[in-house]
Amino acid sequence: MNRTLEHILPKVQKPARYTGGEYNAVVKSKQAVKTRFALCFPDTYEIGMSNLGCRILYGVMNECPDIWCERCYAPWGDMEEEMRREGLLLYGLESGDPISDFDIIGFSLGYEMAYTNVLNMLDLAGLPLRSADRRDLTPLVIAGGTCCYNPEPLAPFIDMFVLGEGEEVTLEYIRLYQLAKEECWSKEEFLQEAAKIEGIYVPSFYEPVYREDGTLEAMEIKPGSGAHEMVRKRIVENMDKSYFPVKTIIPSTEIVHDRVMLELFRGCIRGCRFCQAGYVYRPVRNRNPELLAQYGKAACEDSGYQEMTLSSLSSTDYPCLLELCDNLLDYCAPRDIGVSLPSLRADTFSMNLMERLQRVRKGGLTFAPEAGTQRLRDAINKNLREEDLLQSCRTAFSGGWSGVKLYFMLGLPTETDEDVLGIADLARKVYFAWRECTPNKARGVRITVSTSWFVPKPHTAFQWDAQIPVEEYQRRVNLLRDALKRDKSITYNWHDPETSYLEAIFSRGDRRLADVLEWAWEHGAKMDSWSEYFDYQRWMDALKACGLDGDFYAHRVRPKNEVFPWCRIDTMVNPSFLWHERELCYQSQTTPDCRTRCSGCGANRLLCGGVCNG
């Protein structure tokens, strides 16, 4: 261990975040590899180590003998302070070497409020923040993840963005990078060749042109760059052949999701109109249940974990779920290994499934009705009936469950006060379902209602819609809180509006927001997803200093023909389909799920025109 690090660690909270050396961490000889890759997660160790995508990419790269991928996380404030005081550069956990010495630095971006951490980590590594100021090929700074479907707010800081699923494209651009190093290409020459790879967006090859009213007129392609008119996302077509991290790193300290995670499938059949993931991860691709069972058992054997999560956007839509549960539970039950399904749909929760889940131990039950009335659920295409939710709750309560969490959004397009009060009404009906069905009233019941503030996202049916003003959101929170005050068995939690407002600004923002990010970071912004560090006024000052209005991005309805900052990004879901879905919302009409009927969104083009695996 570095002597400076030995000196620092006794002074900080949770020093195990910064030591490395975990079971299954990959250590290679620097002399034996061609390419060193720093896989950076712009949040704490506990959050980053729980990210399945990072676990997959870590394994994919380290399976190659000539590539060494190491992990790097954002240090907490106490550690950062000591690092800066001692002059210790941000380092990879496996080797302890500064990531500025690596060939490629890659950030995983899943949440807009982590953007300042990207800047902070680059600065802690001793690197210039802006791509134009990093003139050499090495280190190359890239980013991937869901946020990259609108890469523009971070565009000046990142050399290239990877769109979509990274298992295959990662190795493609690394091989190109190796060739570039061998043949002494310039950074510009490498980026020109990299832009030819499907799924690679090089922001310096696109130039935004603005109108006088601040809207975007065009994203012009740099002459001679060879950049694509549209950059299409990458997917893994055959999930049974894709890498799965059976031998995952066992953390040195407690993390958020400290368990085996089995990814059942990618994509979603449902088409909820607010859900970015539901659109950008299309088409649906399932994994074979026998293969999943093998992975799950092998991962438990290797790790010693006593809990397994079956993960996807909607786990109960997996067509072989009962078969998989039976296979896994025959192994898990005798070993007291819990099996949980965190993303349950209330209309597919059954007695058969409940009986399987309670064979080991009962976890919490969570359902997401999203809206309080049938009209609004139809408008957002949730395709969930009130009776389905109540029947699922009756099934759970009669089976011995005594708690349920219900998630909703406030501020959805077309929402009225009647819809808001419908949330309280629905929660009470769940309470009465418990009274009707529970075998043990003495235990009581815990019903938790949680609301978040709707954030319109790119590449969704609501990408044209406005977020409601902060004051209106708070009024609706108060309306619901007052309606629930008398119900002692119901707990109400709501998301603070300030971070959601910033999220709305950056999720649909343009390249001018890069100056806002940099100003805010220079004035202390970091770890903005943590209440201990978030300072709303600092962000308002940053917007003012840069001459921008947050409401222009968050609270403005966009016309149908407006050019979006993400107009060069192709998720293979047609914009005309999204607009039609928006029109159906305002008519409170639903669209059937993909398994019932194909709606022609366009995503099947990624499967060579074949049928989506719904």
Summary tags:
614 residues, alpha/beta, 6-stranded mixed β-sheet, 4-stranded parallel β-sheet, 19 strands, 14% strand
List the helices and strands and how they pair.
Layout: H1 3-8, E1 35-41, H2 45-48, H3 52-62, E2 67-73, H4 77-86, E3 104-108, H5 115-124, E4 140-144, E5 160-162, H6 166-182, H7 187-194, E6 200-201, E7 206-210, E8 216-221, E9 231-232, E10 260-263, E11 265-266, H8 276-280, E12 285-286, H9 289-303, E13 307-311, H10 321-332, E14 338-340, H11 351-357, E15 365-370, H12 374-379, H13 386-398, E16 403-410, H14 417-437, E17 446-453, H15 470-484, E18 490-494, H16 497-507, H17 513-522, H18 536-545, H19 550-554, E19 569-570, H20 575-585
Parallel strand pairs: 1-2, 1-3, 3-4, 4-5, 9-19, 10-13, 13-14, 15-16, 16-17, 17-18
Antiparallel strand pairs: 5-6, 7-8, 11-12
Helix pairs in contact: 3-6, 5-17, 6-7, 9-10, 10-11, 13-14, 14-15, 17-18
Task: Give a structural overview.
The structure is a single chain. This protein has helices at 3-8, 45-48, 52-62, 77-86, 115-124, 166-182, 187-194, 276-280, 289-303, 321-332, 351-357, 374-379, 386-398, 417-437, 470-484, 497-507, 513-522, 536-545, 550-554, 575-585, and strands spanning 35-41, 67-73, 104-108, 140-144, 160-162, 200-201, 206-210, 216-221, 231-232, 260-263, 265-266, 285-286, 307-311, 338-340, 365-370, 403-410, 446-453, 490-494, 569-570. With 614 residues, it is α/β, with parallel strands linked by helices. A six-stranded mixed sheet has the order 2-1-3-4-5-6. Strands 15-16-17-18 form a four-stranded parallel sheet, covered by helices on one side. Helix 6 runs antiparallel to helix 7.
